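Hey,
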Amino acid sequence: MIKTILACGLAALFLAGGLARADEADIRKAISSLYGANVKVDGVHKADAMGLYEVQIGTDILYSDEKGRYLLQGDIVDVKSKKNITEARKAKLSQIKFSDLPLELALKTVRGNGRRIFATFEDPNCGYCKKLAKDMVNMTDVTIYIFMIPILSADSAEKTKAIACAADPAKAWNDWMVKGAAPAAANCATKTDKVMALAEKLGVHGTPTIFLTNGERIPGAVPAAQLEDALNRVAAAGKAG
């Protein structure tokens, strides 16, 4: 969102000496004045570098001096550790509480013992989602919760309804995504509106979007091996904890 809003670009920030305590009201006022009252600042915190203050707008980040006079858009990288501080913070901000997901709204597929659990948000006409579905066919010992969000076209909405109304929705989804077997048209009461509201609440605007049980968000399709590594890492951390 913020990249679009700030397409005009922002001036680089040069600071001399120590900074005073941040005046959050001034920073919020500056953001509102520059980008409009509809741009909501979710938080202002001291950043981990350069004496800057982090300004959170959704899962996006800007940086400010203590008075909101200068703003900086872009990533801060710690050269010594080679750590992208901005990307690390964005990943943290985009995390969710997995246990809060209304899993009853999702299609559920269990393979093997199902011990490795994750959720995805997908559109039935998303090419990357179809690739992910085919990659996941050979994954074992997983439980997959798929939230259908028809965001690409009117046909996506029709296919979502047909799949949701099938006798076995999870099978109908996999038959379509993996085999290309289109579900028969059907009409019934669905929970699509609730799933779409959930996606909006979580800031899911692209498909596929994957969530691991530790709350970590993986935007976009990833190779099966990378997803396997992530699932094993989360499972190992769970055992250690």
